[in-house]
# Entry
Amino acid sequence: MPRSVAARRGAARRGGWTSSSESGLSPPGAGAGSVGWVIDGAGGERVVALTFDDGPGPHTRWLLDELAARDARVTFFLLGEHVAADPATVRAAHEAGHALGNHSWSHPDLTTLTPDEVRTQLARTADAVRAAAGVTPIMFRPPFGTYDDALLALVAERGDATILWDVDTRDWDHDDTEQTTRIALDGIRPGSIVLMHDPRRSTVAAVPGLVDALQADGYRLVTVPELLGSGLRGGRLYRDARSVPEVPGR
Ligand SMILES: [Zn+2]
# Structure
């Protein structure tokens, strides 16, 4: 089952990306020692990116309908073997305006594989997504949230950005709709990236109420590329839209 072991690697490093007007980002405030970019709470937008891993699954079509009814866009980090089994749902997600990312072919811990095995996991999945939806993923999320510098270098070799999260609903652990909703609402701030799993019934059941609550609170639900705007670059690692991206290997 999916587990998320967020391998924290210390404070985000400053450098190299520009402000994105599309995503409502602005440079950090005057506070001494402040790190990274922050959402401009006055003039900026309240935006959040819900992300769904390990699909498509049996509930994904239902989820797409619920999102469409609310004009909400999300990001799917897909497993290649599930894409190959249900390409029509992946195409429907793309055509509805959702973003598609690469979550490996079969969800191994990629840090235990050889470089060529990793390349195959990523390339087969990208090929399956392209065959299904006509687009090539430019974002990667490591299975279990587990990564090391060698893996990030292989992701960078493809030109993909690595996308983690700042809010983990832990749906994979408690499998409870109310807890998923509460953890998300407690943790989300403008610019957040939220980890969820659409193959789980308890998770997709939480989404309509969660989206309604966020929209009532003034949030716009956007894809990760919309959230990061022009800040999204291959070879970098992101946890949210507030911190500067980390540049592996420096
Ligand atoms: Zn996963």
Observations:
- The two ends are 33 Å apart (CA to CA).
- Residues 2, 53-54, 103, 107, 143 surround zinc ion (CB under 6 Å).
- Confidence is low (pLDDT under 50) at residues 1-43.
- The longest helix spans residues 115-133.
